[in-house]
Amino acid sequence: MSYFSISVLEALRLILISFQNINNKDLYEAKTLAEISNPTKSKYDFDSAYRLINEYGEEYFTTQEDNEIQILRSNLFKIVIASNPTWIKKVSLGRQFVLNSINELNNNVESNEILHTLEVCKLKNSNDIDTVLWWKRLSEHYRNNDTNIEKGIDGEFLTLKYEINKLNELRINKTPILRSIDDETLGYDILSFRKNSKDTYEIYIEAKFSNNNKFFLTKNEWNAANKYMDNYFIYFWSEDFHEPKVISFAKLKLYILEDKENSTWDKLIISI
Predict the structure, then answer these.
(1) For the chain, what percentages of helix, strand and coil (3-state, to nearest 5) are there?
(2) How many CA atoms does the CB half-sphere of 43 hold within 13 Å?
(3) Which neighbouring-strand residues pair with 245?
């Protein structure tokens, strides 16, 4: 039985609304009222939603969000955390790894149902800030990481905004792409573009945000820098910056430690 369907999430929302509106706070009565109030109840899986609320408690879920999509997203997040499905295990690597895992499930009906749910919740293809935060928070939960997600997102979206303006200024008819939401292993966050006298070419940007003039550089990011070299840049942001401090590959090399025969580094703290 899968709880990752829109029919369950919608039924969950309707039962919780009924539960809040009755005085005796009886969950079964709330389920009955929700069924009676929805003539097209065949499209909702009230039984599965009822079992979910019984198992985790009505206070675990929410109806207090700005809109219906946000409610669905919030409760889907909570169901994923509670049930820990196998397909979520690679979320720290990026959204695309999760989608690949879902596609590889033995049960095609279940796979299609989950993908449909993500699509209805606008989590499958969207790259807006709320979607990015949803995936990043899920990723950080599975990493057991206490990093400041919002600041990381700030750096990425400030970079996107800056690059959109930069491409317009350079008259390059392309849009920068946030790649890190789908694949965290790339060693960069944003794919953008520049042009020379002959061609338009790609540049690879790792966005950093800090208020103490320091940032972490991972070995994976340094490997990407070595791969793309002069087309690789660090964009460093702080709260009072109107534009980033841009660290080129040549500048970045000055901070890097050399690996020795019996020792290597995994992460550096760089002060600028």
Answers:
(1) 50, 15, 35
(2) 6
(3) 236
- In the chain the domains, ranked by start, together with CATH numbers, are 6-143 (no CATH), 149-271 (3.40.1350.50)
The dihedral built from the CA positions of residue 88, 93, 95 and 101, taken in this order, carries a sign that is: negative
Per DSSP bridges, beta strands 200-209 and 232-237 are: parallel
**Edge-to-edge strands of the sheet including 200-209?**
177-178, 190-195, 200-209, 232-237, 245-248
Number of H helices, E strands in the chain: 10, 7
DSSP 140-174: HHHHT----HHHHHHHHHHHHHHHHHHHHHTT---
Task: Please give the pLDDT value at position 86.
Answer: 93
User: What does the block give as tokens for 16?
Assistant: 């919780």
71-93 pLDDT tens trace = 999 999 999 999 999 999 999 99
- The per-residue pLDDT for range 46-75, each reduced to its tens digit, is 999 999 999 999 899 988 877 889 999 999
Token readout for 163 is 């690059």
Token pair for residue 160? 């996107």
d(CA 51, CA 270): 50
* H or E element at residue 232: strand 232-237
Q: Are 93 and 38 a contacting pair, CB within 8 Å?
A: no
Torsions phi, psi for 216 (to 5 deg): -90, 135
Tokens (6 digits) for 127: 């790259």
